[in-house]
Amino acid sequence: MLVAALEAAPQAIFFLRAGASEPLWRNARARALSVGGDGLPQIAGRPVSDAVEAAVRNGRAETVLGPLGSGGPQTSAVARPLTVDGEAAAIVVLEEIHGDAADDLHRAQLALLPPSLPMLPDLRLSGSYHRATDASVAGGDWYDAVPLGKGRLALVVGDAVGHGVAAAGAMSRLRGALRSTLLRESEPGAVLATLDAFAAEMEDVEGTSIFYGVLDAATGRLVYSAAGHPAPLVVGSDGAIAWLEVTPRPPLGSLPGAPSPVHEDVLPHGATLVLFSNGAVMGTDERPDEALDRLGEVSREVLGRSGNLDAETAAGLADAVAEGVRRPHGWLDDVAVLVAHRRASTQDSLRLDLTAVPQALPGVRRRLTAWLTELGMGEQDRVGVIVAVGEACANAAEHAYAGAEPGPMSVTAEVDVDGVLTVTVHDEGTWRPPDRDPGDRGRGLLIMRQLVDGVTLVEDHGTTVTLSFRLRQTPDADLDQPRASEGVEVVVDREGERPVVRARGAIDSLCAEQLRIRLLEASHGGAIPMELDLSGVSLFSSAAVRVVLAIARIARDENWRLVVHAPAGGVTRHVLEISGLDGLVDLR
Predict the structure, then answer these.
(1) Of the candidates 418, 438, 473, which is a domain's last residue?
(2) Residue 519 and residue 18: Cα distance in Å, rounded?
(3) CB-side exposure of 404: number of CA atoms within 13 Å?
(4) SS3 assignment, position 509
(5) pTM for this entry
(6) CA 394 → CA 132, 387, 437, 442, distances in Å?
């Protein structure tokens, strides 16, 4: 029955012994293929027997993507090692790629890249990834930018060996290893030594090329090292091109323990650092020095005389460089580009001194919107901050001076060296705590805490509301609203002494947002104590744990403690305990 099923399978299936000149067995689909003299097809010009040898040698599946034969349909070939009569062998499955399979791989690769880039007041960052025109050689190039604190930023570009899903997976593992390393160490020599040891233990990561540097945004000091990677270039504010010095060093894992020479340079005000993967200088019709010269000219043309680029222009720099090095027949390999432009001058902080009346609010919105736009915030984040600040100002205008003449109100906004935006709204009146059940009003704190990263309220000679938000560069996009799953119920019960949020059913990642909103609603944005009842929960996901952790932190900042009801011995109680939440909440 098994042989009959394989014989009738829609995929082409081959059984081969390692080193054999012809297949041991082929099914009907495989026999129908037009193949070479050895009875085996070629994928993207590569004999399938090469994939078999690699699979047997490495002991894991080997995948090849590309056109079948000479200009045939896009095909995937997967060779899996096995043993036949004690001898090394493999089964090879060929399947034609239909529809958007190549696009699916491209989307998967994009999903493994950083979803956003940090925004620092002294820098403009831009990142871009372009898939190779031939999907069979796509996958594996990447970039990242990681804030290290005190205005320092880790910048990295790499190129994993191989193509397709395997290369994308190797890239993902190496990027994860880098992020984990940066939690403990950021010095270039130590980071490359750690990644070198990691690559030596991971066959699919071995051979990856990488450039890693740490840039101090305030001073322009750049400390860096590279492994098997070309030197990046700097375009001055006057358009002059300079290549950074890089000491040749083998790719990661190729020669474990090889030293990683560290270099130092300074990126002047108005200059731009251009990092790129190998695909940006790959060409079959030009020498390597010619390809580098072409990249330099493209970068010069794109950047021009860029003393202080605006946010919109800066955001498209990496994409423009990648497009500029595209050959007439497309990109021969993946191209990743990361651009860091050091601003010639930074934006001043904003201060508005007003009278706390509702008529002042439109002016606050206009002035703050213009300031945030110049800062480079995307529309979605900008609107969220504007609404949160508007709520704080509305509270001052409506309640701070109730029963008296309107008094002063000030709004200040500034960004620190690590890209954290802080907006403060101060009045000299009296804070009025929200009513226990305010209906449609008195929910300013609730709204603010849903829109920004942090909200604090201090009463001292008036009221000061401080909003904080970490700036990031993300594409503007509408987010789908979460939908409640069947059998799940999250409600607010106000019958007792304290509001209680009661959850029932499977609180998965889809329902975690619903839980967050109800918790904020019950506590009026964290202003009043409340409880969470999880007695009826059948599944409590990691996303739900993060929600409870966030609310517990808000409660701590507001000087109360969240009470969580979860039966002892139950799965939900166990999840909360192993997550360390029992130290932040009262488990009952």
Answers:
(1) 473
(2) 61
(3) 12
(4) helix
(5) 0.71
(6) 52, 10, 19, 10
